[in-house]
């Protein structure tokens, strides 16, 4: 049996020692097609990504804004299945060891069978699972299997989370806590709420766990500010916008994403 | 055992499958509702609005010509005579009172046929609340009258052009708005579905239907029939009768063009359990767990899911779920118009149509059908259907 040493924990332990903040880009598997999304993942990895978050497209992405909704729609036209997703990650594993977070909504996992999902996800090389519509209250059905496979089930906290929610989520959280910067859906925003910093501090006071911030982050200026208190920044919509804007020019998608990724990584240095 | 349990589960169904941003709001609603639901003042206030504003109780009408046709005693619970033309107002009145007491100033809702949208716009006017209703562009097209009604009542109707552009997509968009404006906004869900405590709240407010029937009957019914989209009118009629084991209940799902065609909205009869819109329940979905588009001529049934309590009773076989097609529903629509002088909603026509399916069984029996809404809104749809067939 393969022993799955959790790479997410390793990375944050190392980064904490050196005071670094991790860059976690998000893309959807299969957008605009499987091969191009694989190229994009490679591009992100070679241009500074410390981890990668891969979205498994869902028909009804209720927590997502327009950009990711459209990304999923494009991916679904290619009928990306769970087997395709695992195959994608296995291929990625052949060329890179960076931690992979699998992001989706619960129904595709439930339909696949949570036990089978955890087993195959682990075998494919996934390190963390983030299910956006699975709060701690409903997570046991999946968590008992992901825990068995040493997959980190990552939970969210939000600006609306009070101390009792933070305590509950922190008690379930593994790997890191994903702090949603805004009350809202995913999507690039020009300005982000000032309360982020105090919320992150509040979380860390309750549990000493890495905190990544996502939703709305779109430029190096925001990153330079956030890196002072967050352990990771997650950027999705801004990257996927490059796909949407260059659907007829795949070279340009890669070029734009490479440049953007590099600029984010540089601003974290 | 009372359902739902403390975590909002009906057996394996229900629950709270929502993003963390919404959890505090859901917990706040749950706490608030728990405190207020048995409060005498609140109950009296709700009853007062039902009586003086909605015009309840609605009649339990003995449909003599329909009874003659089926050699049975058929009663229609006339929710079509409720203010705004359907049972939907029962729930929106209750939820609006909750929202006001919780200090919320802005209400959002999703709507399919527009009946819940109209009922929401109505109570928002009544209580002076800001109102935004999300509605799929396909539904806006087929339910234009209800769009106009919502607008004259002061609501903003926001078109949703995504996915199938029907109720499911309107609900996605309403949830997105709720995530964004959760601190100020109350989400008024229109059916007995969604994250806990909504299925319980909507059921409780709609149970006025069955409770009234219990007071109105001289003779205990043998059979209850109601149509099922999300299932709020059905659970409203059925719930007070569940303890009477001898009463048989039929939930009629929208069979669309026929179950075998895949073009239907019958989540229980033609779907399997899954998670969508905050609850675990029967859903129409493909093998990869993506949600399929539903199809029904009735916009109010055109939804790929169903309330979790129905899923629970389906598995327990306490309620029997079956389907009628678009065509059968239209035939029943015409039948009720001609025999009883009542124009039913196409949604409710599904319940009436089921008589034909169990015509041997209903002979000599007492049957109550929930006539959940009136069909004025559907005249264009009926005309289109008849001109194409």
Automatic annotation (TrEMBL), chain A:
<feature type="active site" description="Proton acceptor">
    <location>
        <position position="53"/>
    </location>
</feature>
<comment type="pathway">
    <text>Amino-acid biosynthesis; L-tryptophan biosynthesis; L-tryptophan from chorismate: step 5/5.</text>
</comment>
<dbReference type="GO" id="GO:0005829">
    <property type="term" value="C:cytosol"/>
</dbReference>
<comment type="function">
    <text>The alpha subunit is responsible for the aldol cleavage of indoleglycerol phosphate to indole and glyceraldehyde 3-phosphate.</text>
</comment>
<keyword id="KW-0822">Tryptophan biosynthesis</keyword>
<comment type="similarity">
    <text>Belongs to the TrpA family.</text>
</comment>
<dbReference type="InterPro" id="IPR011060">
    <property type="entry name" value="RibuloseP-bd_barrel"/>
</dbReference>
<dbReference type="GO" id="GO:0004834">
    <property type="term" value="F:tryptophan synthase activity"/>
</dbReference>
<dbReference type="InterPro" id="IPR018204">
    <property type="entry name" value="Trp_synthase_alpha_AS"/>
</dbReference>
<keyword id="KW-0028">Amino-acid biosynthesis</keyword>
<keyword id="KW-0057">Aromatic amino acid biosynthesis</keyword>
<feature type="active site" description="Proton acceptor">
    <location>
        <position position="64"/>
    </location>
</feature>
<dbReference type="Pfam" id="PF00290">
    <property type="entry name" value="Trp_syntA"/>
</dbReference>
<keyword id="KW-0456">Lyase</keyword>
<dbReference type="InterPro" id="IPR013785">
    <property type="entry name" value="Aldolase_TIM"/>
</dbReference>
<comment type="subunit">
    <text>Tetramer of two alpha and two beta chains.</text>
</comment>
<protein>
    <recommendedName>
        <fullName>Tryptophan synthase alpha chain</fullName>
        <ecNumber>4.2.1.20</ecNumber>
    </recommendedName>
</protein>
<dbReference type="InterPro" id="IPR002028">
    <property type="entry name" value="Trp_synthase_suA"/>
</dbReference>
UniProtKB/TrEMBL annotation, chain B:
<keyword id="KW-0028">Amino-acid biosynthesis</keyword>
<dbReference type="InterPro" id="IPR006653">
    <property type="entry name" value="Trp_synth_b_CS"/>
</dbReference>
<keyword id="KW-0822">Tryptophan biosynthesis</keyword>
<protein>
    <recommendedName>
        <fullName>Tryptophan synthase beta chain</fullName>
        <ecNumber>4.2.1.20</ecNumber>
    </recommendedName>
</protein>
<dbReference type="InterPro" id="IPR001926">
    <property type="entry name" value="TrpB-like_PALP"/>
</dbReference>
<keyword id="KW-0456">Lyase</keyword>
<feature type="modified residue" description="N6-(pyridoxal phosphate)lysine">
    <location>
        <position position="88"/>
    </location>
</feature>
<dbReference type="GO" id="GO:0005737">
    <property type="term" value="C:cytoplasm"/>
</dbReference>
<keyword id="KW-0057">Aromatic amino acid biosynthesis</keyword>
<dbReference type="InterPro" id="IPR036052">
    <property type="entry name" value="TrpB-like_PALP_sf"/>
</dbReference>
<comment type="similarity">
    <text>Belongs to the TrpB family.</text>
</comment>
<dbReference type="InterPro" id="IPR006654">
    <property type="entry name" value="Trp_synth_beta"/>
</dbReference>
<comment type="subunit">
    <text>Tetramer of two alpha and two beta chains.</text>
</comment>
<dbReference type="GO" id="GO:0004834">
    <property type="term" value="F:tryptophan synthase activity"/>
</dbReference>
<dbReference type="InterPro" id="IPR023026">
    <property type="entry name" value="Trp_synth_beta/beta-like"/>
</dbReference>
<feature type="domain" description="Tryptophan synthase beta chain-like PALP">
    <location>
        <begin position="54"/>
        <end position="373"/>
    </location>
</feature>
<keyword id="KW-0663">Pyridoxal phosphate</keyword>
<comment type="pathway">
    <text>Amino-acid biosynthesis; L-tryptophan biosynthesis; L-tryptophan from chorismate: step 5/5.</text>
</comment>
<comment type="function">
    <text>The beta subunit is responsible for the synthesis of L-tryptophan from indole and L-serine.</text>
</comment>
<dbReference type="Pfam" id="PF00291">
    <property type="entry name" value="PALP"/>
</dbReference>
